[in-house]
Amino acid sequence: MRSVNKVILIGNLTRDPELKETQGGQPIVTFGIATNREWVVGDGERKQSTEFHEVVAWAKLAEICGKFLKKGKLVYLEGYLKTRSWETENGDKKYRTEVVLHDMIMLEKKSHDDGDDYVSKKDGESSAEETAEETSPEDSEESNVF
């Protein structure tokens, strides 16, 4: 049976990206983003909820994110969910679910009300996916080292 693991998020970075290299020299970047959800309940009261997401990117896309993204920046992200597990020094098993990026587009809020809330950084700008090769060694031993 076919399945789908695809994530699309628009949110703001919660911290500056941290660019590192695996032991094999593969660039990897990690950062967090926050997404907001708003809704109205039956009596007209507005409610809001914020979710925090851990994000990881590899290879050229990692280098692009490390160079151009900063805390507070608004971004469009596409990727898939990946859950890692490890054991702590005291023997506890820990888990972390991350969004592994395929694509990233820098956005900025429009200064006037045209109906759209977001616009890409530059018209005609290619996405990071078109710039970076899709290299994601998630199944290699290197993927758990950062």
Description of the structure:
The protein is mainly β and 146 residues long. The chain has a single domain (7-128), classed as Nucleic acid-binding proteins (OB fold (Dihydrolipoamide Acetyltransferase, E2P), Beta Barrel), CATH 2.40.50. Helix content is 10%, strand content 49%. The protein contains two helices and seven strands, in the order E-E-E-E-H-E-E-E-H. A five-stranded mixed barrel has the order 1-3-4-6-5.
Features:
146 residues; mainly beta; five-stranded mixed barrel; 2 helices; 7 strands; 10% helix; disordered C terminus
What is the 3D shape? globular
Q: Show unreliable segments.
A: 122-126, 129-146
State the domain count: 1
Task: Return the CATH architecture.
Answer: Beta Barrel
CATH fold-level assignment = OB fold (Dihydrolipoamide Acetyltransferase, E2P)
CATH superfamily: Nucleic acid-binding proteins
Order of helices and strands: EEEEHEEEH
Radius of gyration: 17 Å
- Strand proportion: over 45%
Overall number of strands: 7
Amino-to-carboxy terminus distance: 34 Å
Helical fraction:
under 10%
Question: What is the CATH class designation?
Answer: Mainly Beta
The average pLDDT value, as a whole number, equals: 84
The main sheet comes to: 5 strands, mixed, barrel
Q: Give the strand order, joined by hyphens, for the main sheet.
A: 1-3-4-6-5
* Structure classification: mainly beta
Number of helices: 2
TL;DR of this structure?
With 146 residues, the chain is mainly β.
